[in-house]
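FW: tagging you since you asked about this chain on Friday. Here's the raw sequence from the shared folder, copied in full. Didn't touch anything.
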Amino acid sequence: MTLSLYIARRFLMTFLMVFGIFAAILLLIDFVEQIRRFAPSNVGLTEALGLAALNVPAALYRILPLIMILSAIALFLGLARSSELVVIRAAGRSALRMLVAPILTALLIGCIAVGGLNPIVAATSKQYETLSARYASGPRSVLSISREGLWLRQGGEGVQTVIRAERANLDGTELYSVTFLNFAPDGSPVSRIEAASARLTIGAWEITDAKEWPLADSPNPERDALRRETMTLDSDLTPNQIRDSFGTPSAIAIWDLPRFIEALERAGFSARKHVVWFQMELALPLLLAAMVLIAAGFTLRHARFGHTGILVLTAMSFGFAIFFLRNFTQILGENGQIPVVLAAWSPPVAAILLSLGLLLHLEEG
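HL: got it, structure written out here
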């Protein structure tokens, strides 16, 4: 037990050190990028540093598996160079038994990352988007989905339009039971349109079975309301912009993701992208444990055997391969080419099985 706690504590300290180094490097790089990006908007150094601090957690979270394999490599190389590996094996502790402590530590870090860091990343990502949009000029188009239905906002020259619909088709280009609220630049309402349906075409919404209330100059909007079988409303939205307006699933805390998926499906949209992300987040602790096993398979040996640099490079190559395989299966899962469970869980499971096979061959064979 004492030896396991020692190894776990040392691995945790190594991970925190590597994590801190990457955080400092990414913060410096992003700080320079924010200064360059918002130079025309006269954003000060304090605001740029704040934007960088909000953007760095998302970058760190994305590369967490790579940080884990680097930490594991550093741990095993340190144990080998101090001859602690020789002492541990001389005491009768096998390699696989010794790996229990760092693997459990990696699983614990993964659970903390999914349960705690994930909501932090979601919150900082939203705040970053809000602040960057405030500093940048020009109108924006935003979509959100709630229990009340689907909400869109489109910007244009001299007018902002808020759109609400009970439901929509899969790509958001056809809305049903839809309401359009037009606002002037000063925020005052201009008109309200309620319609049975609206279809997005190039440069406009084609609205069917509509009723329009003038809200700006009419003392009695109901009296002056007009009914139209069809009408058009200018729009700068495109189907791709609507799909992209959902944002990445990483911008939603994992605790809120099941409710968001339910609301997304209730509004008529496909939630497969979010379901794949949710499953991949659940599989993250297993992936981090797989990274530890990959590092152990190539670096859990005495330093006097030589070829340390080649083995470290090989371990990093395998780690990058699993990392990119995970991203590749995510794309396949989102496109519906493979099942969701296979897309999320196959990379970490395959990595664990392969690394265990390598360890059994090299250490116990």
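FW: Residues 2-135+268-362 form one domain.
HL: agreed, and The two ends are 26 Å apart (CA to CA).
FW: great, closing this out.
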